[in-house]
Design goal:
By secondary structure, the protein is of the alpha/beta class. The protein is about 45% helix and about 15% strand.
């Protein structure tokens, strides 16, 4: 039975379904873009449940949220783990998906990503400040980090330590086990893949693998770490806007 997620619905126009990353949320991952996207689209997003759920169930839940909101067809904008969810939405509901935008994503973790996710999972069990320092080190690009004052860095770590969402552990495990490689060739909608070129958590070669696997996919590069919504929101929005047009 499909769980119906509590959605965020904003704007009016063609449908745009949001799929967020592990340890994130709709507002956390897409917040800087929401007002602008809602000017031209009906934007639907929902935070994932705090317990359990497979990739199929996340895909089913997001589609149910969109349909419940009266949005029967949509482009899917996926970020990080959300790119795997978006691919799964496209392959389970091809009649509903009109396009894909896959940002800072991956088809499957490689050895480096697996180690990063394993550390994330272990640190979730202990001190949240240590976890926040680790995530800051892996999610933020070196130039962005270097530009922070010591006070800004301390505040950023403290804020991150206080805002770890419930459900992060199972979402990290989903990312650890995700593998959508076999599905990519069947995707038949216009697809934009956005690579974050300064990303040490999900390096850009993963975006290249997505673009290579999806017929006709376009790849664009943005100089950002994994946290593109904070580091390069304007460049991200420009790329999304181009795809939506």
């Amino acid at each position: 039975m499909t769980e119906h997620f509590a959605p965020l619905v904003a704007g009016q126009g063609p449908g745009l379904l949001l799929a967020h990353g592990a340890g994130g949320g709709v507002t956390a991952n897409f917040g800087p873009l929401l007002d602008d996207l809602a000017r031209t689209h009906t934007v639907v997003g929902a935070d994932y449940p705090v317990e359990g759920g497979t990739l199929d169930e996340l895909a089913d839940g997001l589609v149910a949220a969109a349909v419940d909101a009266g949005v029967g067809k949509f482009t899917v904008l996926g970020y990080s783990l959300g790119t795997a969810v978006a691919v799964r939405v496209a392959t389970r509901y091809p009649e509903r998906v009109t396009g894909l935008v896959l940002t800072a994503g991956f088809a499957r973790p490689d050895a480096r990503m697996e180690l990063a996710l394993d550390l994330w999972a272990e640190l979730l069990k202990g001190d949240r400040t240590l976890l926040a320092k680790y995530l800051t080190l892996t999610v933020v690009s070196e130039p962005f980090l270097a530009a922070l004052t010591p006070e800004q860095l301390t505040a950023a770590v403290a804020g991150l330590a206080e805002s770890v969402p419930a459900g992060t552990a199972y979402q990290v495990e989903l990312a650890r086990n995700a593998d959508t490689r076999a599905e990519l060739a069947s995707i038949a909608v216009p697809t934009l893949v956005i690579a974050t070129t300064l990303d040490s958590l999900v390096p850009p070669r993963h975006s290249q693998e997505l673009a290579d696997g999806i017929p006709g996919a376009e790849l664009v590069e943005i100089a950002s770490g994994h946290g593109i919504g904070e580091e390069a929101p304007e460049a991200w929005l420009t790329a999304i806007r181009k795809a939506l047009r």
